[in-house]
Amino acid sequence: MIKDTAAGYGLISKAFHWGMALLIGWQILKFGDRIAEGEHWVGQVLVPWHVSIGVLLLALIVLRTFWTISQRRNRPPQNGTTGIFATAGHGLLYVLLILQPITGILVMLGGGYGLDAFGVQLIAEGDKIGWAASLGSLHSPLAWGLSALVVGHITMALVHQFVVRDGTLKRMA
């Protein structure tokens, strides 16, 4: 099944979810760059891809948002208080997943670095832009917030699987 149904998520939703989960996990490893000034495998192998993966994630979250809106009537129901919290949590995840790469781009533009993704120059280097640098300074705090939401998301998926036993995880697996 490609589209979502009341019984479970379709192939496209699952591909977005798990593909983005892997990429977000990769991005979160950027925190390791703060250890020993990046002089280890994380800093040398994964971090150089941080901007490119961020640009890719921005494109994916935009596409995923449109897909989610198109599938909202087909999706498994979210009922009661738990459903309200799940909807709010997912909404916050979407907001931070959009803001995170945007603020990252603002860091690059604000510093006058330009923007390259996967070896392709998207925006040329230029003058520093104060307002972009200022808004870009939210990138790191948002990363901590997004990381906390991701941990909460994973925790709740495991609670639903092993405590509540309502099949929530199975619908996305």
TrEMBL record:
One GO cellular component term: plasma membrane
Coiled-coil boundaries: none
Transmembrane segments: 7-29, 49-70, 91-113, 142-164
Record GO biological process: respiratory electron transport chain
Membrane topology listed for this record: Multi-pass membrane protein
Pfam families: Ni_hydr_CYTB
Residues of the Cytochrome b561 bacterial/Ni-hydrogenase domain: 9-172
Recorded GO MF terms: electron transfer activity; heme binding; metal ion binding
Keywords, sorted A to Z: Cell membrane, Electron transport, Heme, Iron, Membrane, Metal-binding, Transmembrane, Transmembrane helix, Transport
Cofactor(s) listed in the protein's UniProt record: heme b
InterPro entries the UniProt entry points to: Cyt_b561_bac/Ni-Hgenase (IPR011577), Cytochrome_b561_oxidase (IPR052168), Di-haem_cyt_TM (IPR016174)
Localization of this protein: Cell membrane
Similarity comment: Belongs to the cytochrome b561 family.
Protein name per the record: Cytochrome b
